[in-house]
TrEMBL record:
NCBIfam families per the UniProt record, alphabetical: transpos_IS110
Annotated ranges, domain Transposase IS110-like N-terminal: 15-158
UniProt xrefs under InterPro entries: Transp_IS110-like_N, Transpos_IS110, Transposase_20
Domain Transposase IS116/IS110/IS902 C-terminal residues, every copy: 230-309
This protein's name: Transposase
Signal sequence extent: none
GO MF entry, a single one: DNA binding
Alphabetical list of Pfam families matching this protein: DEDD_Tnp_IS110, Transposase_20
Superkingdom of this protein's organism: Bacteria
Biological process annotations from GO: DNA transposition
Length: 351
């Protein structure tokens, strides 16, 4: 005797996926009740087969939190015709009881429930090509930070052995200084240690130059060239900053206004208002930390070349420290960047 499966045509099935490295915890809900909760391997194809086999004809809606696994699952599910969104982990409504009794099953249930109730706003999922472009800039940034770390290790290594750097090098990491490092011999196994650090530095510098050449070639491709040239007209924005902005932001029109764009950069303060009491706190921890760091560095450069931004900085520096004042400058600089990207025209400084 064969079991006849129910036809779910016209019904919706909501799928909450709590993703981990080795397992997915999946909870399925209909409009009326929780249907099933199970654990499976992190495989989109297996989930698709399960849904089609047990809930044929239904409209499937999936959600999972942004994290280490990226957007591959979203793309695979969307390619199969399944509506799938990725959300910010902090946007999941959570009761006090769920905080105190946390488990993967509870987490996936919260995701399915929130999706069913319409509580979530999807984050932007970049296309594969933009994600590849973005990775080039991010790896370059990481290598640059690694170079700084290795340089610091070399300096402290020399200090530890009482080796003084000749004055003619003036603390600059020139070719001459790096050649001098090759003549330094702390003695014994210290030579091996210094040699390893020196080789690591040379390797990272070589890779950094190679990546910079690739980034410059990328900036001249047709999909970036016009916006790239326009962004270079904005004070404080160099070629690396311009490419970071273009690959991270993508389509500027997806932001409804400057406030939403500031939120994406993490330039919106926390607030806690109740009745007549208004409390404004520090900048929110949400947002793209990488973009925020890049924009603040650009803001420090911009006040040297843009008189209006310098005036903004001077008007607030008397009542707050420089690190807070530069955030206000960064917001104004971001408004200029938005104007340039939205209107496809260069920025002109008012005389």
């Amino acid at each position: 005797m064969e079991t006849k499966l129910r036809d779910f045509s016209g019904e919706s099935v909501y799928v909450g996926i709590d993703s981990h490295l080795k397992r997915w915890q999946v909870t399925l809900m209909s409009e009326e009740l929780e249907l099933q909760s199970f654990s499976q391997e992190p495989d989109s194809g297996r989930l698709i087969s399960f849904l089609e086999r047990h809930f044929p004809g239904a409209d499937y809606h999936c959600v999972y939190e942004a994290g280490f696994s990226g957007f591959n699952a979203q793309r695979e599910l969307a390619e199969a015709g399944i509506d799938c969104i990725v959300i910010h982990p902090a946007d999941v409504p959570t009761s006090d009881r769920e905080k105190r009794q946390k488990s993967d099953r509870i987490d996936s249930r919260k995701l399915a429930r929130g999706l069913k109730n319409g509580d979530f706003k999807a984050i932007n999922v970049p296309d594969v090509r933009r994600q590849q472009d973005r990775s080039l800039l991010r790896v370059h940034n990481r290598i640059t930070r690694d170079i700084t770390r290795v340089k610091n290790r070399i300096k402290f290594f020399l200090m530890f052995f009482g080796i003084t750097v000749p004055k003619e090098y003036g603390g600059r990491w020139s070719k001459g200084f790096r050649a001098w490092l090759g003549t330094v011999h702390p003695g014994g196994y210290g030579d091996i240690g210094l040699g390893c650090l020196r080789d690591q530095l040379e390797y990272l510098l070589t890779r950094q130059k190679e990546l910079e050449k690739k980034i410059k070639l990328l900036s001249r491709e047709s999909r970036y060239r016009t916006d790239f040239d326009n962004l270079l007209s904005v004070p404080g924005v160099g070629w690396q900053t311009a490419m970071v902005l273009l690959t991270e932001i993508g389509d500027i029109s997806r932001f409804s206004g400057i406030r939403e764009l500031c939120s994406y950069f993490g330039l919106i303060p926390n607030c806690h208002n109740s009745g007549e009491t208004v409390r404004i706190g520090r900048n929110t921890k949400r947002g793209n930390v990488y973009l925020k760091y890049i924009l603040l560095e650009a803001a420090w450069m911009a006040i040297r070349y843009d008189p209006s931004l310098l005036l903004c900085y001077k008007s607030v520096i008397g009542r707050m420290d420089g690190n807070k004042a530069i955030i206000k400058v960064a917001r104004k600089l971001l408004n200029r960047i938005r104007f340039v990207m939205k209107n496809k025209q260069p920025y002109r400084i008012c005389e």
